[in-house]
Amino acid sequence: MKEESFKLLRSVAEQTMTARDAITIPEGKILAEKQLLNENGLTEEGRKQLAPYQVDNAIIMAAGYSARCMPLSNVMPKGLFQVKGEILIEREIRQLLEAGIEEIIVVTGFMEEKFEYLKERYGVILVENKDFDKYNNMASLYAAQNYMKNSYILCSDNYYEENVFHKYLYTPYYSCVYSESYCDEFCVMETDENGYILDIHRGGDRAWYTIGDCYFDEAFSKKFCAFMNEEWENFQIRNMLMDDFHIRHIKDLPLRKKERPKDSILEFDTLEEIREFDPEFQNFVNENLDKDNTVIQVFSKYSDVKSYHSVPTEQISGRLHLNENLFQPSPKCLEVLKNITMEDLYLYDLTHSDELQDALSASTGISANNLFVHNGSAEVIKSIFSILLNENDTVLIPAPGWSYYKSVADEKFAKCISYEVREGEDSYEYNVDDLLEKARCHTPKIIVVTSPQMPTGCTIAYEDIERIIQENVNSVIMIDEAYWGYGIDDNVFEKKIITKYSNVVITRTFSKFYGLANIRIGYGLCSYPLRRTIGLDLPLFRASGISRKIAIAAVEDKAYYDAMKKESNEIRDWFTDELNKIEDVKAFRSESNYVFIKLLHADADKVRAYMEENNILIRLFRDKDALRLRITVGPKDIMERVLYQLKRALGQ
């Protein structure tokens, strides 16, 4: 049936147009001639032809935690929040029933018992997602797959200003709303001549993004379920959002872009967003929370704090997004494991001296009294922030930079102020004047300097560091040297600064240069008084003894790492030169194991997505208003493949 004919028959069937009015227009006359329509309404043949387009049911996903809506989401699922006098999921159910959708399936998980009343009140079917606490919303569709036919796929926490649902639908679609500014949503980048989505990815501006109602017809549902069941043993699939799974199979699962007016569909991520929409919502919060309960007070305090998470991946090869050392660690590190004893497993290490500290002391020429070992440099940073920061303190951090700094500061309710790392002719450079100006204005408790800087790969000169220290005697200067090891003079700071200034701490890790990311060892260098203070937040027992033995083997195999450094840096510089030969590509000089890249006339996120499709994972970073690529440097054969695929992604 042609879509124009379908829409006319639906209008009559749903009584939004009278049959008499319908047959006065050209398409209606044709339908009347075909005996699908008469003055009294749809004929039996008309109803028969419309029947395949009838919606069988709606599946509402309501299983999740909604952690960003704590503390209220600690006592009830978000779908049961009352907004403008109506419970969110009840409003959605009533709109479905009004549209003639009688079979409604609600997929529950977190606090499933609180949805039980819906069975009696609205006759819904409850399906339990037993894996709601392990996986993403693909697990809800997996649990409800036996109901997937001509089905609406919905979320329990969407608010539709007007009833958007129909009893009959022509084609699978996904509702979209337009955003002029950048939004971290699934943005439709390309459609075909019929409006079917050809390209969609996370994040974008001046784009339509998916939100709210989605519709699968029976053929679509069968394909979707077939792919889902075929791939379900893959943990990565289980932990996907439905949107990511659709992108994975976008050529075989065509969804049409359904354009909706701005603000016609609302999605509330936080309690504050709901309050802005409905000022009376706070009364509902007060009624359901015991504000005098000290536990609730804690939940409430941390409700808007987000923890930092690395992007999960099951992929082993092509991992150029985490800056792991793809040249691998010294073989002597693996040899250590062959000599591990049972005592290494069941005894605490309580010896007076720490052999790793001694090895680092010998390597750096710094006293062991100025060293401390932790479970990775991320934990070193967290301990520094935890000990030193109080609520409303200020931290200066570089931009662009690692978002982990802000995440950890947020946990202490400290404020982060960014200073500029700016683009130079061949490399990025620290805007030290901007840093010092911000420091004068905000009197920070901690000033973070990353060298080599992540993600740009630039370094900061000793003279600039000393200037920062001398002009900020009331701040702790934290020099994050996670990418230490690749530079010409790697020990430029430690020997000149640590024993000279008491307010400086250098953080390092074995994850990058030493290629030991999974043993979780990091360390700090600082004055003894600062070491003792930070030490109050160190683990009760030392970092893993087995990991420390592996780290010692790495420190002592200088010949291996000298050769690895030479090879890595040569490939990095070659890769940078080759990138700069590509039209409209600017690669910046780096002193680390990655390269920061500017694309002059290409969509960086689209390039990232293309590379991922070809099993090469790279990272995006935002510098001011533009996205940049960061690519880890690996062995020559890997980087040759990266160049080849990058050129293809750029159409060259």
Plain-language structure description:
The protein is of the alpha/beta class. It contains 26 helices and 27 strands. The strands form six sheets. Strands 3, 6, 7, 8, 10, 11, 12, 13 and 14 form a nine-stranded mixed β-sheet that branches. It has an eight-stranded mixed β-sheet with strand order 16-23-22-21-20-17-18-19, with helices on both faces. Strand 1 and strand 2 form a beta hairpin. Helix 14 packs antiparallel against helix 23 and helix 24 packs parallel to helix 26.
Strand content: 15-25%
- Indicate the percent of residues in helices: 25-40%
Indicate the low-confidence ranges by residue numbers: none
Please tally the helical runs, counting DSSP H or I stretches of 4 or more residues: 26
Strand count: 27
Largest sheet: 9 strands, mixed
Distance between the termini: 43 Å
Global outline: elongated
Integer-rounded radius of gyration: 29 Å
* Structural classification: alpha/beta
Can you give the mean pLDDT? Answer: 93
Which structural traits does this protein have?
eight-stranded mixed beta sheet; 652 residues; alpha/beta; 27 strands
Describe the SSE topology.
Elements: H1 3-13, H2 19-22, H3 26-33, E1 37-38, E2 41-42, H4 44-50, E3 57-62, E4 82-83, E5 86-87, H5 88-98, E6 104-108, H6 117-122, E7 125-128, H7 138-143, E8 151-155, E9 158-160, E10 173-179, E11 183-191, E12 197-204, E13 207-216, H8 218-231, H9 235-238, H10 242-248, E14 256-259, E15 265-267, H11 271-277, H12 281-288, H13 294-301, H14 331-337, H15 342-346, H16 355-364, E16 371-374, H17 377-388, E17 394-399, H18 404-411, E18 415-423, E19 428-430, H19 432-442, E20 446-450, H20 462-470, E21 476-480, H21 494-497, E22 504-509, E23 522-526, H22 528-534, H23 545-556, H24 558-579, E24 585-587, E25 594-599, H25 604-613, E26 619-623, E27 626-632, H26 636-649
Parallel strand pairs: 3-6, 3-8, 6-7, 10-14, 17-18, 17-20, 20-21, 21-22
Antiparallel strand pairs: 1-2, 4-5, 8-13, 9-15, 10-13, 11-12, 11-13, 16-23, 18-19, 22-23, 24-25, 25-27, 26-27
Helix pairs in contact: 14-23, 16-23, 17-18, 24-26, 25-26
